[in-house]
Amino acid sequence: MGNHSDGGPNDSGTVATAGQNEVEKFQDPGIPPHRLRLADTDPKAAKKAERQVALLFGISVVGTLIFLVAYFAIDLGDDSTIATIRLQNALLGLGTAFAMLGIGTGIVHWAKALMPDHEVSEERHAIRTEEDRQAAVRIVDDIVEETGIKRRPLIRNTLLGAVALAPLPALAIFGDLGPRPDDTLAHTMWAPQDGKLKRLARDPDGTPIKAADVTLGSAFHVIPEGLNELSEGKLNEKAKSVVLLMRLNPEELHPSPGREDWAYNGIVAYSKICTHVGCPVALYEQQTHHLLCPCHQSTFDLTQQCKVIFGPASRPLPQLPISVDSEGYLVATSDFHEPVGPTYWEREQHVLIPNS
Predict the structure, then answer these.
(1) Distance between CA 230 and CA 83 in Å, rounded?
(2) Angle, nearest 10°, between helix axes 82-113 and 153-165?
(3) Region for residue 224 given its phi and psi (left: phi exceeds 0; alpha: psi -120 to 50; beta: otherwise)
(4) DSSP secondary structure letter of residue 251
(5) Which of 23, 61, 105, 339 is 20–30 Å from 267 (CA)?
């Protein structure tokens, strides 16, 4: 008698069951046929590819030299123009780009055009310490041999030259970071000299500012009077001393104990250097009394002594104590009571207590 089915899904074949049509082992598809490249069959094509790789490594060397020449040959003194600064920045950027791009592109082209590209399959085997070590050594030797670096001195020599010169731009930049700040940022031109208080002057013309000139809601970019007359170190002193000057209703200010006399009739002055990474705080929102750093959007509240209310900055902007002299000009009654700019290791050693 033939097999009879009751019509259920398990008997009708509509549902797969365990073991049904089971394959004992996956079939090995094998390695696809290897397609030879032009450089594998034509010695002239291989030589051309070798010269192309060497040319790319040479471009990397030229890029590094451009960077070094721009960095050391273009002098950025106090009398430097914007055009000179832009020229140096452009050459530094182009030099770095060619240095990195030449090495990267050269290695990729070398691998694709000249290094062996055949596929290899290996059976898994038990790991034995000594045999594994010897196998690793053989693999490294095979890799070195396959790269052809021993047989292609042109590529080897240009690669060594590019790799040797590539780190020099980074070393030059690290060297330009200069010495540790120590107490350099703790002292600015705002400190009184020979008992004479420094007047607040407009940036960049250096004309003194009278309290009557600062109207409600106005903002001034300020430098110490006499800064423009410096013959040396002008840019460094300006970088530390730049200040933002604003006027609010005195009732809106909330000074902490010891700072009640740091403002004059609602006029306040704060360092323009952001306490995050030192960018210039240049945006003043008149309605909210907020100062905004355009680099990373750190926001400071003028009514709360420039307390950080948003962004990555971790400290308020340092306040400059101000008053007026007998002629009505705004003057700094002292230097900043804390170092300006971002945090550094020795900073807390130079923080002064107000009115100390």
Answers:
(1) 22
(2) 150
(3) beta
(4) G
(5) 339
Output the six-digit token pair for 117.
């590209």
- Supply the pLDDT for residue 268: 97
Whose structure tokens read 């007998």? 326
With cut-offs at 50, 70 and 90, classify the pLDDT of residue 141: confident
Beta bridge partners of 290: 285, 301
Q: Residues 318, 340: contact at Cβ < 8 Å?
A: yes
Contact 273, 282 (CB under 8 A): no
Which residues have CB under 8 Å from 261's CB, separation 6+? 321, 323, 333
Helix, strand, or coil (residue 335): coil
Q: 9: Cβ–Cβ under 8 A, 6 or more apart, which residues?
A: 15
Q: Are 237 and 189 in contact (CB under 8 A)?
A: yes
Phi and psi (nearest 5°) for 29? -70, -15
**Placement of tokens 């952001």 in the chain:** 274
Residue 60 and residue 54 in contact, taking contact as beta carbons nearer than 8 Å: no
Token representation of residue 8: 């259920």
Q: How far does Cα 110 stand from its chain's mean position?
A: 31
The answer as to CATH 2.102.10.10 being correct for domain 184-350 is yes
